[in-house]
Specification:
Shape: globular
Bound molecules: S-adenosylmethionine
Radius of gyration: 16 Å
Strand content: 25-35%
CATH topology: Rossmann fold
Number of strands: 11
Number of helices: 7
C-alpha cells in the first residue's frame, strides 16, 4: 500500500508550492539520470520509435528540452505556469540544428490536458513521467492512468515512469516540504493493469535519482497497452 507523507502542505497548495519552487531559480538544470536512460532505450530500439514524447509534470523542461535537442518531437505538460514559462525560455535559448516540434502547455494532467497535448501530434506516443506520480494523490493517479491507458491503446506507444517508492519515506530531502506520496510499485503495476497497461520492464533501488545527499529509492517502469 502507498504511504502518504504530507510534510507541511496539502495537495491543494501544490500549485503555489510549485510556482514558488520554479520562481526560486534553485532548480536542477541538467537532464535527469532517467532521461538519459530513456534516451538510450529509444536510441537502441529497446523502446520502439514514437511520433512524440509527452512529458507529464515536465517541470522546468530539463528532460523535455534534452529530448528535443536529440531531435524528438516533444509535448510538455505541467500544472505550474511558472514551470511552463521556464520550459519556453529554455527552448528558445537552445541551439537546434533541425528543430523538431516542441510544445509546452500548462494544465492539470487529470483534467483532459494530456489528450489536448496529444492531439498536437499524430502517431504512437511515449508518455514520459519523472518524479510526477508521487507528487499527486491516488485519486489523481487513477484518473491520469485511465487517461494514459486509453490514449496509448488508441495511439500505440509506451509509458516510462520514475517515482519515489514506499522504501523512500524517510531520509534526506534537498527540496522544501511539500506533498509526496510514496508509491508501492507492485500496487502501481496492478493499477496500470486496471488501466489497460502491462508492465514490460521495471527496476527499483537507489543510485538512479541522486541529487546531492538525497539518494531516493525509486522505481522505473515501462508499460505498454495489453
Ligand atoms: C517533482 S516535480 C518533477 C519535475 C520534473 N519532471 C523533474 O523531474 O525535474 C513534479 C511536477 O509535477 C507538476 N504537477 C503536480 N501536479 C500536477 C498535475 N496534477 N498536473 C500536471 N502537473 C502537475 C508540478 O508542478 C511539478 O513541476
Amino acid at each position: 500500500m502507498d504511504a502518504q507523507h504530507n510534510s507541511g502542505q496539502d495537495s491543494l497548495d501544490q500549485s503555489s508550492y510549485w510556482n514558488g519552487y520554479y520562481r526560486s531559480g534553485g532548480v536542477p538544470e541538467l537532464p535527469s539520470q532517467f532521461a538519459l536512460f530513456v534516451a538510450g532505450e529509444l536510441a537502441s530500439g529497446a523502446v520502439e520509435p514514437v511520433a512524440a514524447i509527452l512529458d507529464i509534470g515536465c517541470g522546468n523542461g530539463r528532460d523535455s528540452v534534452f529530448f528535443a535537442q536529440l531531435g524528438h518531437a516533444i509535448g510538455g505538460l505541467d500544472r505550474s505556469e511558472q514551470a511552463i514559462a521556464a520550459c519556453t525560455a529554455r527552448l528558445d535559448a537552445m541551439p537546434r540544428s533541425a528543430p523538431a516540434k516542441a510544445l509546452f502547455q500548462s494544465g492539470c494532467a487529470e483534467s483532459g490536458a494530456i489528450e489536448a497535448l496529444a492531439d498536437a501530434f499524430e502517431g504512437p506516443l511515449l508518455v514520459y513521467s519523472r518524479f510526477f506520480f508521487h507528487a499527486v494523490d491516488q485519486a489523481a493517479e487513477a484518473e491520469i492512468l485511465g487517461r494514459v491507458g486509453r490514449l496509448l491503446t488508441q495511439r500505440g506507444g509506451a509509458l516510462a515512469a520514475e517515482f519515489r517508492t514506499i522504501h523512500d519515506s524517510d531520509g534526506t530531502r534537498e527540496t522544501g516540504a511539500h506533498y509526496r506520496r510514496y508509491v508501492d510499485p507492485a500496487a502501481y503495476g496492478a493499477r496500470l493493469a486496471d488501466s489497460g497497461l502491462q508492465v514490460t520492464w521495471q527496476v527499483q533501488g537507489r543510485g538512479m535519482a541522486k541529487y546531492r545527499s538525497d539518494d531516493a529509492h525509486v522505481a522505473r517502469i515501462v508499460a505498454r497497452p495489453w
